[in-house]
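Archive record
______________

***
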Amino acid sequence: MNAKLRLSAVFVKYMCTFAVIMEALEAMLTRRSVRAYTDEMPPRELIDKVVEAGMYAPTGKNTQSPTIVVVTNRALRDELSRLNAEVIGKDFDPFYGAPCIIIVLADRNCNRSHGTYINDGSLVLGNMMNAAHALGLGSCWIHRARQIFASERGQELLRQWGIEGDIEGIGHLALGYAAKEPAPASPRKEGYVRYVE
C-alpha cells in the first residue's frame, strides 16, 4: 500500500471515530425524560442492549455493587407501580404507562469503606437512559426504590429473585416507546460551570 492510500485509510478511520463520538455526544445532549408511553413492549434485543450499557457503567474500585432486575411481567409491573404510588400516598401510575421497568439495586456492603454504592447505581441508571435514547426508546428515572425494597413486600420480592445482601433500591427506570415527543430541554442555569485556572 502506498503512502497516499495509507494516509487515506487513516483519515477514513479518524472520520468514522469522530462520527461515533459525535453520535454519542448528541445522544447525551438530546436525551429527555419521557413521561408518557405506548403499551408496546420493546423487543428483548433492545432491552438487552440498554441493560448491557448499564452493566458497563463505572463503579467504585470496580466492585460492581449494583444488581439490575428487568420486569416485563405486567402483573408485577403493576404491583410495583402501586407500591411506588403508596410511598407518596397517591393513586396514579408513577411509571407513566411504561411496559418495562428496570430496577437498579445495590449492595451497601460492596466497597463499604468508600461508600460508593449509590453513586454506582446512579451511573448504571444514567448509562441506561442514554443507551435507551440512542436506541430510539424513551426512559425516565423513577425514585422511591429505596422505600419499596426496604418494605416487607420489597424484601419478599428480593428473596423470590434470589437477591441477597444488604440491598438498597437505587431507582427504577421506566422504559418503552414514547407516546409523544418530550418537551425540549430547558435552558441551562447561569453559573452551571466554573473554571478555576
The chain has two domains: 1-30, 34-176.
